[in-house]
Predict the 3D structure of the following.
Amino acid sequence: MLVRVQAPLRATLRSLARSEASSTSSTSYFDTLHLQLPTTARSPILSSIRHASHQAQGRANGPKSTAGRRLGAKKTGEEYVIPGNIIFRQRGTHWFPGENCGMGRDHTIYATETGYVKYYKDPERHPKRQYIGVVFERSQTLPLPRNAARRRRLGMIAIEYNPETPTEVSGDLEVGERVEVEGLKSVSNKKRKELPKKELTLRPGYMYREANWEIGRAAERANVKVRRYKPGDRFAAWRKTVIRRTKSAERRGMRGKGKGKGKGK
């Protein structure tokens, strides 16, 4: 019975011994080969390991979800606008500025005159572009003909002209009726002649005018009494505020001392 069991045991032990011998021989072979190769022939791919380069933590490479920029039309067609009103916000030039309109550096179209908004196309100017303009009258249409006169407001109001009834024009230099204002004394022409004549000289800045000291004595000439300046009163208000603050600080200190004594008792 023992002879039958010993035979397979011996076979297994022999196989284990062979496997160990083969493994040691293979490792020794690779070691000798590695020693025989020169240092320049070694490849960097075998000697280095590449790790992941993408950032794993944080939201540096995550999705960006910012608030909307509120683009689009801010004023509809035939809506009343004033200079500076934003008509259309856009990224790029989907619309171009037309009559009485301008465009900012972020392609925002705004009005430069008061009027009504018009969206239109001008094939003669450009076959594909779309324009936004402002007209002075709601019934007016765009684009205007090529040879039409340009309409400009120039900050003036249109008034109907009737040549049959001429209007009286009065210039600034015409002498009219004298208007007396309460609190002001009117000087007659005789007294004006008696007053000494002013000698105007050329001052710095190429101006003919009186000297500063002469202008400062205007109240003296008009017999207006002015309170005489006292140098001692220059810092009177400042001194009063300092005294008031010191007194209030002393009162606060006295209150604090009284409370401390009461607590100690």
The mean pLDDT is 76.
